[in-house]
UniProtKB/TrEMBL annotation:
It catalyses: shikimate + NADP(+) = 3-dehydroshikimate + NADPH + H(+). Homodimer. The lineage of its organism: Bacteria, Pseudomonadati, Pseudomonadota, Gammaproteobacteria, Oceanospirillales. This is Shikimate dehydrogenase (NADP(+)). Shikimate binds at residues 15-17, 62, 87, 103, 217, 246. Pathway: Metabolic intermediate biosynthesis; chorismate biosynthesis; chorismate from D-erythrose 4-phosphate and phosphoenolpyruvate: step 4/7. Involved in the biosynthesis of the chorismate, which leads to the biosynthesis of aromatic amino acids. Catalyzes the reversible NADPH linked reduction of 3-dehydroshikimate (DHSA) to yield shikimate (SA). GO terms for molecular function: shikimate 3-dehydrogenase (NADP+) activity. Its EC number is 1.1.1.25. InterPro entries: Aminoacid_DH-like_N_sf (IPR046346), NAD(P)-bd_dom_sf (IPR036291), SDH_C (IPR041121), Shikimate_DH (IPR011342), Shikimate_DH-bd_N (IPR013708), Shikimate_DH_fam (IPR022893), Shikm_DH/Glu-tRNA_Rdtase (IPR006151). Belongs to the shikimate dehydrogenase family. The gene is aroE. The active site is at 66 (proton acceptor).
Length: 276
């Protein structure tokens, strides 16, 4: 029997998830079908209920339904509870729906495994305080950085997030211009790059050895990574690897075996290059 999976979002046309999961399924010859569904803004719970009652095995959830998906679920992984927003749902054998947030593990795997970036003992700056940042905080803090600073345009949101996660490590919140000293790793989790804007960070946050990571991806360098390179940074990474790794983590939760990601990341990069 074919197992059914889907990604729900609004908009959804841009989603690469069907292509990524089809590639994972092909590797192990898994008999599964993964579709994309455009869901009306007020309609997530109905759509998810319908999907699971018709035998759906698992869902991915993207903007703007990650909080709705959290409320829909009946069981949670520890990191999902912390994030209060989830990108993965799985129907369990007893019919309950388990929620997970795989974004953070995806980011950490891309940094530490694909790019060999050490996070333990390092000074990390995380830009933004929205859903993506909330989702990555626990997995990042589990890497035991020396310090993690959250900087955001709305300072109160950075401070509130830092307080929520203070029991997991040395974490603080501030505004972009209040950032002090240089960092080993800077991760842009704002959506500023989407509109071609830059968080107004002091250049003193960078050294040539700083690793700059933009969760956003697209064709060519993001505005943030371009700024980093213009200021002497040699290692800049975009969020394509995170996208594939979070999908691999969801696939592993659903299917019980982990797919290879390297070829899938390379194929997507290649496709992007040829479509530029
Ligand atoms: P949210 O809308 O929840 O949060 C947006 C954040 O960006 C807020 O902190 C907001 O600040 C900040 N922001 C928006 N515009 C600007 C600006 N012009 N200058 C400075 N800060 C700004 O979005 P998400 O957290 O869901 O997503 C953030 C980014 O992460 C997106 O680009 C998304 O594509 C990417 N992402 C990538 C993933 C991947 O797999 N690669 C997975 C998930 C997300 P304020 O609080 O002041 O409004």
């Amino acid at each position: 029997m074919t197992d059914l999976y889907s990604v729900m979002g609004n908009p959804i046309g841009h989603s690469k998830s069907p292509q990524i999961h089809a590639a994972f399924a092909a590797q192990a010859r898994d008999n599964m079908l993964y579709t994309a569904q455009l869901v009306p803004l007020e309609g997530f719970a109905d759509a998810a209920e319908r999907f699971f009652s018709h035998g759906g095995a698992g869902l991915n959830i993207t903007v703007p339904f990650k909080e709705d998906a959290y409320r829909f679920a009946g069981e949670y992984t520890e990191r999902a509870k912390r994030a209060q927003a989830v990108n993965t749902l799985k129907r369990m054998a007893d019919g309950t729906v388990l929620a997970d947030n795989t974004d953070g593990v995806g980011l950490v795997r891309d940094l530490t495994v694909n790019h060999q970036v050490e996070l333990a003992g390092k000074r990390i700056l995380l830009l933004g305080a929205g859903g993506a940042v909330r989702g990555v905080l626990q997995p990042l803090l589990e890497q035991q950085p020396a310090e993690l600073v959250i900087a955001n345009r709305t300072v109160s949101k950075a401070a509130a997030l830092a307080e929520d996660f203070a029991d997991l490590g040395n974490v603080s919140g501030c505004g972009f211009t209040e950032v002090e000293g240089a960092f080993d790793v800077i991760i842009n989790g704002t959506s500023a790059s989407l509109s071609g804007e830059l968080p107004p960070l002091p250049v003193s946050a960078l050294t040539p050895a700083t690793v700059c990571y933009d969760m956003m991806y697209g064709s060519g360098l993001t505005v943030f990574n371009q700024w980093a390179q213009d200021n002497g940074v040699t290692t800049t990474i975009d969020g394509l690897g995170m996208l594939v790794e979070q999908a691999a983590e969801a696939f592993t939760l659903w299917r019980g075996h982990r797919p290879q990601t390297h070829n899938v990341i390379a194929a997507l990069r290649n496709e992007r290059r040829t479509h530029r």
